[in-house]
Amino acid sequence: MYGASMSRWTMTYFSASIAFLLSGLVSIGSGYGTLSAVDAPDNLAIIHLIVIGWLGLLFCGALLQFVPVLSATHLRLPWLAAPALLALCLGLGLLTMGFLALGGRLPIDATIMSVGGMLLGIGFLCIMAMLATTIVAQRAFGISGFLVLVGLCALGVTIVLGNMFASLLAGVLDIPLLATHLAELAPYHAGLGILGWMTVTAIGVSYRLFAMFMLAPERTGARNPIAIAVPCALAALFSAIGLRFLDAAWAQTVTIVAVILLALIVGLYGQDVWRMFKARRRKTLELNSWTGLAALGFLALAAMLLVGAVSFSTNMALATAAFYLLIMGWLTGLGLGQLYKIIPFLTWLETYGPVMGRREVPRVQDLVDERHARPWFGTFYVSVLVGAAAILFGSDPLFRAATWIQCAAVAALALEYLRARRLSYAPLHVRLPPGAVRPHTICVTTQTKE
Predict the structure, then answer these.
(1) Confidence class of residue 446 from pLDDT cuts 50, 70 and 90?
(2) Which among 1, 165, 166, 330 would be 20 to 30 A from 210, CA to CA?
(3) Spacing of C-alpha 215 from chain mean position
(4) What is the average pLDDT score of the chain?
(5) How far apart are CA 15 and CA 54, in angstroms?
(6) pTM, full prediction
(7) Does the pLDDT at position 221 exceed 80?
């Protein structure tokens, strides 16, 4: 059935995620936060707004759609999708307000941070339950499903650490040993979320996406060395967290090993994508494939900076620039690029599915116009490079200028997504044939089987 693999709430997750991204970029451009103190409350509020609000919701929405495809089965526990979204949005709002209260910007009790953290934990646990039960329902799954499962394990540890940190900062928990090591453990919390969950998951899902969009053979199965390297790298990160309480020198050594393994994973992944690129049957690639390849370049650059950062631990600018490139260049670039294909495809499936084979309908590619979007993707990527340079040189004005350019590019791309959703580029004579379903902007109107 045409609607069998459509998630009812994916578009809603996407819409909320873009709104959070734009609000985070506007906040940075307007003067909130500073490069001189990354762990300041204002910075933490904006970081969580973008990482959880934008990337977290983006990943959740995308996985609700693609995990059933990866597993060749229907989504388990689909009724959890809406409560999860509500809990995530409300939890993020309370967490952000708590950070602002810590910074003296809001006259409220900072203990709402712990409530926000619990709500975020509940929301993500709902997502984890849906995805994990869907994947393990199949006795055998390929590299993509395996990496998604491993990423969910990292997400679980990230949730636990985040809730502990929120409760400590809010004064709800009083654990002197943990409070003493809070500053040392914070990078591991960020690393497990951005690298352990998001990057590992993005690699897993993009194996299928690159193969599908480039019409290339997909490398699957347990023989892929990434299937061994990823668990080893995460095990090293988990070990380093424990060693922080026992021996800082050993913890640093294990951290370096973990980062080197992660860099190796990036190299193996890049090699696999290059093989798919050379073996592709689609010689003229669409825009979303080119943007995905560009995002991979940012991942490689970030990995090199991260290796340098852990090797020379006194240089915080390197680590900050590396995580910035991971968040904005790799994950955001990949996300924006794939949305440019996913939204038109889901819109096409929803709108024209009921009349396929009975009426003339446009192609998926007819729902977009790459001439409008291509300059904005280029502008976005250039502005990310400028932002990373601003971090390395410690220039707040340059960083804010780059952020405003990113904001303009994201807003322009969001308009392109909206145009695709509203069928603005579809040829007029086949735009809405009799029997087709006009889509709503932020949710799926068709009653689908999940």
Answers:
(1) low
(2) 1
(3) 24
(4) 91
(5) 10
(6) 0.95
(7) no
CA distance 49 to 53: 5
One-letter identity of residue 138: Q
| 97-146 confidence digits (pLDDT tens) | 999 999 889 899 889 999 999 999 999 999 999 999 999 987 777 888 99
In the chain, where the domains are located: 1-141, 142-283
Angle between helices 112-136 and 81-102 (to 10 degrees): 150
**Per-residue pLDDT reduced to its tens digit, 142-192:** 888 999 999 999 999 999 999 999 999 988 888 888 888 888 899 999 999
In three-state secondary structure terms, 356 is strand
* C-alpha dist (Å) from residue 84 to 57, 60, 61, 100, 162: 10, 10, 11, 24, 18
Distances (CA, A) of 154 to 126, 267, 397: 15, 21, 35
- Which stretches of 137-181 are DSSP H helices? 143-170, 176-180
Hey, what are 75's tokens?
Answer: 């989504």
Say which residue the tokens 């003493």 belong to. Answer: 180
Does the structure show a pLDDT above 60 at 449? Answer: no
Single-letter amino acid code for the residue at 265: I
Q: Which amino acid is at 413?
A: L
Give the CA dihedral 416, 421, 424, 430, nearest 10 degrees: 140
Quote the strand ranges of 224-366, DSSP E.
Answer: none
DSSP codes of every residue in 406-434: HHHHHHHHHHHHHHHHTTTTS-GGGSS-T
